[in-house]
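Sequence and structure are no longer studied apart. To make this concrete, we show below a single chain and its fold as tokens.
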Amino acid sequence: MNALLSVSDKTGLLEFARGLHALGITLNSTGGTAQMLANAGLPVTEVASLTGFPEMLDGRVKTLHPKVHGGLLARRDQAAHMQALAEHGIAPIDLLVVNLYPFEATVAKPGCTLEDAIENIDIGGPAMVRSAAKNWKDVAVLTDAQQYPAVLQELQQHGKLPDKTRFALAVAAFNRISNYDAAISDYLSRIQGDGSHALFSGQANGRFVKLQDLRYGENPHQQAAFYRDLQPAPGSLVTAQQLQGKELSYNNIADADAAWECVKSFAEPACVIVKHANPCGVAVGSSPLEAYSKALQTDPTSAFGGIIAFNRVLDEAGALAVSKQFVEVLMAPGYSPEALAVFKAKINVRILQIALPPGGASEWSNGRNAMDIKRVGSGLLMQTADNHVLQLADLKVVSQVQPTPQQLQDLLFAWTVAKYVKSNAIVFCKNGMTMGVGAGQMSRLDSARIASIKAQHAGLALQGTAVASDAFFPFRDGLDVVVDAGATSVIQPGGSMRDQEVIDAANERGVAMVFTAVRHFRH
């Protein structure tokens, strides 16, 4: 057997090459890779000796030669192919090990120039990988150091690689080339005529890896699968480890993401309960148990069969409380052994553990998406993600009544929750818990009324509450509805032509009102 090794990242290669040599496999290599193998005492033939041509053009041309590609592409079951190899003195290449110039890492560096990027576009590597992958029945192609141990073990045990392994390696190789080319396209198509970089590339190249097929989609007649980014952010839902329970469904995943993104927004111990993508109960407390107990009070009816997320390790006390209700999915950064024991009897509860990003809760924003994408008919809508975090200093008090320190905290809490509620969103809060949530209505008035009705059904008094509206009140009637329900402070973006009318209404009703100058539509 003949192997050709030509890698940019030499991690693990020396040990792998030693294993190949021990099996009697002939080693061929290029440039720096050949020098490394020779320095280690391994017999290696440089590609320049095979082709009869030296490396040229500062290494731009090394392997673009018939004696390389003929050895990779020749079909062993075709007599004419093998005869052509013999006539031209070309040796078959049975094993190719290639990883590509580090284009992605290069363009990720601050200060990367166009020249740097261009010089890190690999030409010969992708060409060889494509040749070998196309001829997968006769050639094995490795494009990742993580593949070395398993391939070497199979060769040691069986002397060759089965079709199944070679095909899987070929698929991985084509995927790598696809991702590599997409990264180049993304980068270059962002460059403007003046040399600046646009935020959005001229061509969008989505690159995702399938995690699993799902039983069905949003409805049973739909098929579905779950994918992750090539490089998922720490603390994101796709990094979750499922500790027990049934397989996650399409709707479970969608709702779990809504709950997880919301709970990550709080520095204090928090609990978020989500039903049909909307928070139906959110609270902070001194412990997971207290946060859960408060969150559940908001809307215990909707919480039935909901998704529950914590931003602290769940202990036994919290687990015992949660176990008393029907829950579809439970999420936390960790669980005590006693907490897990509580749920052993509830084998269908899906329990997810998501590790905190480096830096702990203060760095949870690292797990957020940088971009949001939505499919429309034969197209995409793409936008930067709504990662705006409102600070106390950002608030502009527009009413005569000044909000108290406690009201300001409640207003910030309500605003954070409203960000994760479908528009039109109205959220009543008090003392670090939601008191009523109105979501997804065509009229902001209806959202306000629904939030009030839900609070009434839950037995919660709205007197003295803070209210958040995800967008401005276009008329004073929306403000009157929430004040009539008991609100004494309001947070809203402002920006309406009738802002003054609403401000005058706040002053007339004697409530505090602050503007954020930012809205949080969520469709």
